[in-house]
Amino acid sequence: MSLRRALCLTLLLGAPVAVAHADSRSSAKAEAEFGVDVALRGLWREAIYRWERAVELDPTYAQAFNNLAVAYEHEGQLGKARQAYEKAIALEPQNIQIRQNYDLFKEINDRAGADTDKEQP
């Protein structure tokens, strides 16, 4: 497992979740947790589906946007990754884990001049 992937998975699993909108957050959290489970098994497309569902259910769920960004990045969908990171940062600007993921993403991808998706949706 690459260091980047191990770091991402650690951040996915270790981030705190703010409680809001109990019903939608509960359903979104269940989707997000399932997304982590399948990502750990290498099923990134399923993880993306689950995290997309999570943010549909609760559009204020910053950690789900962060997880979605990591998954998009893993799948080479860099434009979508940037948008998801920016949404996560907008929702929780003081979240250190989200900011570290985004800063690392920018450092790697801005230096490479890559700001477009390798694969179109």
Structure in words:
- The protein is mainly alpha-helical and 121 residues long.
- The chain has one domain: Tetratricopeptide repeat domain (Serine Threonine Protein Phosphatase 5, Tetratricopeptide repeat, Alpha Horseshoe), CATH 1.25.40.10.
- Helix content is 74%, strand content 0%.
- It is built from six helices and no strands.
- It has helices spanning 3-14, 22-40, 44-57, 62-74, 78-91, 96-112.
- Helix 4 (62-74) packs antiparallel against helix 5 and helix 5 packs antiparallel against helix 6.
- The longest helix is centred in the N-terminal third of the chain and has 19 residues, at 22-40.
- It is globular and about 40 Å long.
- The protein starts with a helix and ends in a 9-residue tail after the last helix.
